[in-house]
Amino acid sequence: MYQLGNAKKTVRERDVQKNNTEKFSILLRNQVKHLSNGKAKEDLEKLFKNIKESKLTRKDLLLCNSLWTEISVPIIPLEKNYFKIYQKQYDIEQLKNDLKTAILNMNTTWVDKGANKKWKSITLKSVNGGDQSFLEKKDFLEVGKTNSYKYTKAMNNCNYFKKLLEDIPTDIYLVRILKLDEGGSLGYHIDDNVFAEKEKVMRCHVPIISHPKTEFGIGFPIAKRPPDKISKDYPTRKEWNALDLDRKHLEPGFMYYTNVNTLHAVYNPTNVARYHLCIDMRPPELMLSMLNQE
């Protein structure tokens, strides 16, 4: 049913839309109740299989699920939503040493980012080196000499972190250490308000300490997201009701591009805290050409 083959485009779109309108109405209307419906579950598994095998385009996905948008629909193939930018592995011991230094510089003070107080951050680079725990759309991302992002006190004596950042041929913006505690998880959410203009800013991760069972997930939305809860401390984005479409472990020591425009989540069902160096940057020319090859 999902083998689209070489049929004419108009026929293909009409068939995909008809099939999914009929077969996934139960899924979208009753949210997770489809799990007790054998036929609906079977149809969903077929759809996921075809998405993972890149047999559907992003346009097909928009027809399959109206909860996706032009921005939030995942990149096909799914592997392009999180991949190693460089095959070079950074020195993990030096990354760990700078992680320890940054934590000591902050007297082990972390900014709580929600997720039942298991999701925390330390900022290493921010606008004028001030307090900034997240990137906002209103932030002006300058280029070259007008770039106002400076190292914070947490970066004192973190020479390996500095070298890593300064070797990237582009403007570096917000840089943080992100910690997900043991047994923690961050539900499905989207950062499209900031990263919608992919030619201006993208997010990369360098895992420092992790566990093979700690994973980054891509989600399939099954219900509309509730409105965000805005607080003076942190703008908590409400989690989506979504199913796991794909999950991947990000290996320590490598730099990964992560598509945070699409529904993504993080799982850490282990007894090891997960520490990542999270870098928001202007896409280098090579990286931008890779992203434009979708």
Account of the protein in words:
Mean pLDDT is 84; it is low at 1-11, 21-34 and 231-235. This protein has two domains: 9-66, no CATH class; 81-291, B-lactam Antibiotic, Isopenicillin N Synthase, Chain (Jelly Rolls), CATH 2.60.120. Strand 2 and strand 3 (119-127) form a beta hairpin. With 294 residues, the protein is an alpha+beta fold. It has helices at residues 9-23, 25-30, 38-52, 58-64, 92-105, 159-166, 192-195, 285-291; strands at residues 82-84, 111-112, 119-127, 149-151, 172-180, 185-189, 202-209, 215-221, 242-248, 256-258, 264-267, 274-281. The strands form two sheets. Strands 1, 2, 3, 4, 5, 7, 10 and 12 form an eight-stranded antiparallel β-sheet that branches. It contains eight helices and twelve strands. The longest helix has 15 residues, at 9-23.
Write a short abstract of this structure.
With 294 residues, this protein is of the alpha+beta class. It is built from eight helices and twelve strands. Strands 1, 2, 3, 4, 5, 7, 10 and 12 form an eight-stranded antiparallel β-sheet that branches.
